[in-house]
Design goal:
alpha/beta, three-stranded parallel β-sheet, 5 helices, 5 strands, globular
């Protein structure tokens, strides 16, 4: 399979002369986790942001990870320090430095919460906000 068919690995490896320093996996499927590992260079880091469904295993090339000294990190909610970081994020948002509004796919009333989840499942939305009015 080539890049045109959905496998960007050969192009990424060519464009980066052997792989990326950091690969951020944000979808949470075994296939994308493996893809992130494969496209990371020797000594590179894979950051898993996406949550692989509970009970799902991800088979990884152990020799590639060990012999090429790759690191795999998990990241929950940006690994933030809630009490310290949240007030700072709020201030950044209020001052216009953190542009969150542009990241919202849709604003929906509570009675359409299931529509929001369905749009996410279908890949038609990334972030929906439920509005209580």
């Amino acid at each position: 399979m080539n890049a045109a068919e959905g496998n960007p690995l050969p192009e990424v490896l060519e464009m980066t002369a052997g792989g990326v320093d950091y690969a951020f996996e944000a979808i949470g499927t075994p296939a994308t986790v493996r893809q992130a590992v494969r496209m990371t260079r020797k000594g590179g880091t894979i950051v898993m942001i996406g949550v692989v469904p509970a009970g799902t295993s991800v088979e990884l090339p152990g020799a590639d990870i060990v012999l090429r000294e790759k690191t795999i990190l998990g990241c929950m909610m940006g690994s933030n320090r809630f009490r310290t970081d949240m007030p700072r994020y709020v201030e950044l948002y209020r001052s216009g430095q953190l542009r969150l509004d542009e990241m919202i796919s849709a604003r929906l009333p509570l009675e359409r919460v299931n529509d929001a989840f369905e749009a996410i499942r279908r890949g038609m939305a990334a972030r929906s906000v439920i509005v209580f009015e």
